Amino acid sequence: MVSSEQMQNIEKEMFSMGMPVEALMEKVGIGISSWILDRQGLIENGAIVLVGPGHNGGDGLVVARELYMAGVEISIWCPFPLKKELTQKHFDYAMHIGIENLEYKPDSNSDLLWIEALFGLGQSRIISDEIFHLLNSKKKFSPDKLISIDVPAGLDSDNGNTISNTSCIASSTLSLGLFKSGLIQDSAIDSVGDLERVDIGIPDKILADLPETQPLRISFSDLSTFDWPQPRKNKSKYQRGRVLVVAGSDKYRGAASLALSGALASGVGSVSAFLPKSVSDSLWSTHPEILLGGDLDTFPDGSSDFSRALSEVDLNRFDSILLGPGLGIPIEKVCFAAELQDFKGLLVLDADAINRLSLTSKGWDWLNDRNGPTWLTPHMEEFKRLFPSIDFSNTLKAGTEAAKICGSSILLKCAHSVISDPGGRIWQIGQANSSVARTGFGDVLAGFVSGIGASGFACNQKFDTDLLAASALMHAYSGAFCSEGSTASTICSFLGELIKKNSS
After folding, report:
1. Are 402 and 396 within 8 A, CB to CB?
2. Which one of 171, 212, 312, 405 has the minimum C-beta count within 10 Å?
3. Rounded to the nearest 5 degrees, what angle is found at the Cα of 212, between the Cα atoms of 177 and 343?
4. Sign of the CA dihedral 34, 42, 140, 135?
């Protein structure tokens, strides 16, 4: 994913290598028109191209020409004076070959496809109320017949926020060259619609010059390319990864059960647990595979106290420890697990473990004293509590800064979850599905990444944050495609099937 400045620099470098500006505009316009022609239902009643003053408008005029030559009933509307010479040339040619130029604003009640090519990349111009209401009226009457070229009008392509609180609401956005980072942010979801990429032939030489810390958009198709941990066939269960889950309370019993189910779905060799007695008493009937290490103490308010449990066991017997799901937050002030600082394996902090850490005097700085790797899996409110001084308006930047200062990898859970590591590398899940925004999915995710992390640790493979990113992506995929249902409990068996298939 790139910023608007990076994309503009990429285009400039292509031009400096000899690519004519005219040729690139032709490539863009032909690519977009081909995409549209492949979807005949969009243009069965014809189309209108909304032409802006710059090169985005020029792209739109090439599209209009190609559709016209393919026999589509097409017209254009230019609400602004044209400012770019190349755009003016394409306009003149469109007029000569007979494309209609509308004198008045188009009728938003029609079933024509509108192709919005008003501003494009790096826009800062505030769209007028007239155009804003016109575009939104079109979206209201024909919700599947408004597409934007590169960036919807009125949307900041770097952070996904609207400019002056208004933007076009597109059914599809065709991002040119590379995905613009702003288009994948949660704030842009309603404006962007379905996001597609149009290839413009960027040379590999230019792509190779991008930094290693360039944000990466990951999608479900990437799951088949990832190298999952591969335990040797002669390894015992204890050599296939050992995870300890410390979770649950009298107030939140279900969270512990779901976290355990997520850990089991990971295929890890052994799962142990410290749980409140209200959960452990029935563990044999719900999760007979779990090794019960003991019971957690309970504070008067019903939240769990894990201090005694952690002090009575050799933590370095485990490859990963999950702490947090459903523990509750005690009213009284408590210390935060000093024993975990010397733990050399993977520590996964979720939910109330993060909330408790945020209440300590050291806060996130406690993580820098850890002797092993740490993964944090907060949702946005938990993230804000732990990192109150970080500007969270841009999740990519917020995740990157937080990971660097605390020396830990972070999975910031949102519609397009962000995964970042202390070295500055960052991933973002590019496909959002509202079915995963349900109670319990975070508990399953915490258990699942803890199990996958333990397996990776035990396999002596390169242990890296890309393992966390891939695990989060598989969890999102399960929420989107599990055919048996959409509850947190249901996706666990689907997750187990996926991990078995991908690691075989």
Report:
1. no
2. 212
3. 135
4. positive
Angle CA 442–445–446, to nearest 5: 90
Q: Using CB atoms within 10 Å of the CB of residue 385, give its burial: 0 to 12 exposed, 13 to 18 middle, 19+ buried.
A: middle
Plot region of 328 (φ>0 → left; ψ -120 to 50 → alpha; else → beta)? left
φ, ψ for residue 396, nearest 5 deg: -60, -50
Alpha-carbon Rg for the chain in angstroms: 26
Q: Which domains does the chain have, with CATH numbers?
A: 4-210 (3.40.50.10260), 237-502 (3.40.1190.20)
> How far from each other are the two terminal CA atoms of the chain, in whole angstroms?
31
Beta strand 100-101 with 409-412 is unpaired
**Which residues are CB-contacts of 169 (< 8 A; sequence separation ≥ 6)?**
135, 136, 139, 146, 152, 190, 191, 193
132 in Cβ contact with 166 (< 8 Å): yes
pLDDT tens digits along 170-224: 999 999 999 999 999 999 999 999 999 999 999 999 999 999 999 999 999 999 9
Would you say residue 253 has pLDDT above 70?
Answer: yes
Which residue bears the tokens 């020396």? 407
Distance CA 352, CA 327 (A): 6
Q: How confident is the model at residue 314 (pLDDT cuts 50, 70, 90)?
A: very high
pTM value? 0.93
Tallying the residues shown for the chain, one arrives at 504
Instruction: Give the pairing type, strands 409-412 and 418-420.
Output: antiparallel
Distance CA 145, CA 422 (A): 43
DSSP state of 319: S
The angle, 0 to 180 degrees and rounded to 10, between the axes of the packed helices 253-265 and 441-458 is 40
Distances (CA, A) of 279 to 45, 254, 262, 275, 327: 61, 8, 16, 6, 12
Q: How far is it, in rounded angstroms, from Cα 218 to Cα 429?
A: 5
Contact by Cβ (8 Å): 354, 376: yes
What is the distance between the alpha carbons of residues 265 and 273, in angstroms, rounded to a whole number? Answer: 15
Q: For the range 464-469, what are the long-range contacts, defined as Cβ-Cβ under 8 Å and sequence gap of 24 or more?
A: 464/421, 465/375, 465/409, 465/419, 465/420, 465/421, 465/425, 466/226, 466/425, 466/427, 467/229, 468/375, 468/409, 468/411, 468/419, 469/218, 469/411, 469/419, 469/427
Decide if 248 contacts 32 (C-beta within 8 A). Answer: no
SS3 498: helix
